[in-house]
Specification:
It is a single chain. The chain is of the alpha+beta class and 445 residues long. It folds into 3 domains: 205 residues, Beta Barrel (Thrombin, subunit H); 86 residues, Pdz3 Domain, CATH 2.30.42.10; 98 residues, Pdz3 Domain, CATH 2.30.42. The protein is 17% helix and 41% strand. The protein contains 10 helices and 30 strands. The strands form 7 sheets. The protein has a 6-stranded antiparallel barrel with strand order 3-6-7-10-9-8. It has a 6-stranded antiparallel beta barrel with strand order 11-12-13-16-15-14. Strands 18, 19, 20, 21, 22 and 23 form a 6-stranded antiparallel beta sheet that branches. The longest helix has 14 residues.
Length: 445
């Protein structure tokens, strides 16, 4: 550093002095090993980078095109193989890895890379798009390093540590604090509830990686960043939800949906939206607990509800046989709470549910298509109840139902399974064919 000084006599002479900075006694490695450093050392080996290779069809990529090809044949296609990068974390030494669904959604070949340089191929155990979670399995000759999911809720203000693969920069560590809990995030197609907000830097490629506390426990799975020019606003799926969804995916390969036998819808009251029971299945758990149409559900397991979407979100992933506490407002203004024990949706009720809620009577039919020398089985509309939701959108006898919620169905058995999966979301999207025309129509269940 250069410093100019004036002489004592007041002359203009300047003396140049070079000040050498001599460091004071510096802290040693032991003193610098902060809780963040210690947690990072414990966790880093269990955090993985995920890359996927995806086969992409240049043409005929839509559901509608696929059904047209049965009649007119498929055009010639070229295939490209792009790469996708994300993060994940090992939660079980046997090789189970949790990541975001959107990281591996279109992956045909998935590779998991560890901090020690190992690259292992992974297979998909199960996915849950509604929670944006997926579980992978990698094979190893020895147990893999794994991290535990934290018990209890994260605390606002506590230290948070994100480890991941932002922009392909392997095993990047950032830290901050928990900024808020129970955040609601809306996307174009779905609303997520209960997110953890953190100011630990989260960037593209961090998706699927862990958000940790100073004990190196997983408090969340990093999933989203706030758009626009915002800085330091990232979101993670809380550990409790990860535990419930991942546990179901590992055990069953899917999320077994909890059914309590009621339907809900939004009820606007001024500036507020309430969740009202619109229908109760006579033979279902809700009816057995004394719930009737017209009651207002204010909370699920103590968590207040904002709208019907949040009710479906909180019921999603609920363990079968585990009582759910519903807080209610009765039509007479009284308050109360009931425990309802979820069951798996009975397949035998699928057709009667669609008949009662939508007004469709379906049956199987055999039709000739170009892609098959033999007639194939399809679902045909046998009747439409007058003034029903199906009648209001113009469905008619003879229409064909080709898919339910983007899953192709070829008979009543597949249709029942599709309704069982769709029921918890409250949405049934039918791909309906009339002649050579195909239309997607959404109904409420």
């Amino acid at each position: 550093m250069l410093v100019a000084s004036r002489t004592a006599s007041g002359g203009a002479a300047c003396a140049l002095s070079l000040l050498l900075c001599v460091p004071s006694a510096s802290a040693g490695p032991a003193e610098r090993r902060s809780p963040v450093v210690v947690a990072t050392e414990k966790a880093k080996a269990a955090v993985v980078n995920i890359s996927t290779e995806t086969l992409v069809q240049r043409r005929a990529a839509t559901d509608l095109d696929r059904f047209f090809h049965q009649f007119f044949g498929a055009p010639q296609e070229r295939r490209l193989v792009p790469n996708s990068l994300g993060s994940g974390v090992v939660i079980d030494p046997r090789g189970y890895v949790v990541t975001n669904y959107h990281v591996i959604a279109r992956g045909s070949r998935i590779k998991v890379s560890f901090a020690d340089g190992r690259d292992l191929l992974a297979k998909v155990v199960g996915t849950d798009p509604r929670s944006d979670l997926a579980v992978l399995l990698v094979k190893s000759d020895t147990p893999l390093p794994a991290l535990a999911l934290a018990g209890g809720e994260a605390m606002i203000g506590e230290t948070s540590i994100a480890i991941g693969n932002p922009y392909g920069l392997s095993h990047t560590v950032t830290s901050g604090v928990i900024s808020a809990l129970h955040r609601q995030i809306k996307t174009e197609s779905v609303t997520f509830f209960d997110f953890i907000q953190t100011d630990a830097a989260i960037n593209p490629g961090n998706s699927g990686g862990p958000l940790l506390n100073v004990d190196a426990e997983i408090i969340g799975i990093n999933s989203a960043i706030y758009g626009g020019d915002a800085q330091g606003i990232g979101f993670a799926i809380p550990a409790e939800r990860v535990r419930a969804i991942a546990g179901s995916l590992i055990k069953f390969g899917e999320v077994r949906e909890a059914w309590i036998g009621l339907s809900v819808e939004d009820l606007a009251e001024g500036e507020k939206t309430r969740v009202v029971v619109s229908d109760v299945e006579p033979a279902g758990p809700a009816a057995a607990a004394g719930i009737v149409a017209g009651q207002i559900i204010t909370a699920v397991n103590g968590a207040p509800l904002q709208d019907a979407d949040e009710f479906h979100y909180r019921m999603h992933g609920t363990a079968l046989g585990q009582p759910v506490q519903l807080e209610l407002l009765r039509p007479d203004g009284g308050k109360g709470a009931v425990a309802v024990t979820p069951e798996e949706f009975p397949l035998k009720l699928a057709e009667s549910l669609v008949r009662r809620r939508i007004g469709l009577e379906l049956g199987e039919a055999r039709v000739q298509v170009r892609s098959s020398p033999e007639p194939v089985t399809v679902l045909e509309v046998k009747s439409v109840r007058r003034a029903s939701p199906a009648a209001r959108v113009g469905l008619a006898r003879g229409d064909l139902v080709r898919a339910v919620n983007s899953v192709e169905v070829e008979g009543l058995e597949q249709f029942r399974l599709a309704v069982q999966r769709a029921h918890p979301s409250g949405r049934l999207v039918l791909l309906v064919q009339r002649g050579y025309a195909l239309n997607q129509i959404e109904f409420s269940l």
